[in-house]
């Protein structure tokens, strides 16, 4: 007979629990995102981050610890805009450091791309090795960064198409949101595992 503790003890099982949040069209998007992250805090306590956009400028703040400790009123006031994505992290790949805190923000050409990802990309190491062998330079040890590098050669095709191309190469369970200056898109793995 199985005991209650054996049935519900998940400590030895792999977990892919982060929290991702996105909002579009709210005058105080960063504040709403903070409240969303606060509500998702049970999904990750290692770090928290928000990237916002006012349509022209992109602002970012990330820190280690709980959302309530990372985001004070003075910080939220420095994240203007009507678009925002946020993330609370429970690491499954990569160490628990500020360089691995999300959203992951990159500047490519004239555009900014912020990615907040939950899940586990099982072929991340293989893809990372291939990308590094072809010249990619990684800034973190997160599997999430692989997605940005897979998108990069296809960005002239547009955000949606470049993300679709990248995600066709990714194996695993994931949900993600991505922000540019004037757009937010969301995606999840084709099997709908919804980590």
Question: What can you see in these coordinates?
Answer:
With 195 residues, the chain is α+β, with helices and mostly antiparallel strands. It has one domain: Aminohydrolase, N-terminal nucleophile (Ntn) domain (Glutamine Phosphoribosylpyrophosphate, subunit 1, domain 1), CATH 3.60.20.10. It has helices at residues 4-8, 29-39, 67-70, 73-76, 124-133, 144-151, 159-168; strands at 19-24, 47-53, 58-64, 83-89, 104-108, 111-121, 172-179, 184-188. It has a 4-stranded antiparallel beta sheet with strand order 1-4-2-3. A hairpin with a 4-residue loop joins strand 7 and strand 8 (184-188).
Task: Label this structure with key terms.
alpha+beta, Glutamine Phosphoribosylpyrophosphate, subunit 1, domain 1, 4-stranded antiparallel β-sheet, 8 strands, disordered N terminus
Give the strand content. Answer: 25-35%
At the first level of CATH, what is the class?
Answer: Alpha Beta
Outline: globular
The number of domains is: 1
Helicity level: 25-40%
Radius of gyration: 17 Å
Order of SSEs: HEHEEHHEEEHHHEE
Q: What composes the largest sheet?
A: 4 strands, antiparallel
Remind me, CATH topology? Answer: Glutamine Phosphoribosylpyrophosphate, subunit 1, domain 1
Give the terminus-to-terminus CA distance: 29 Å
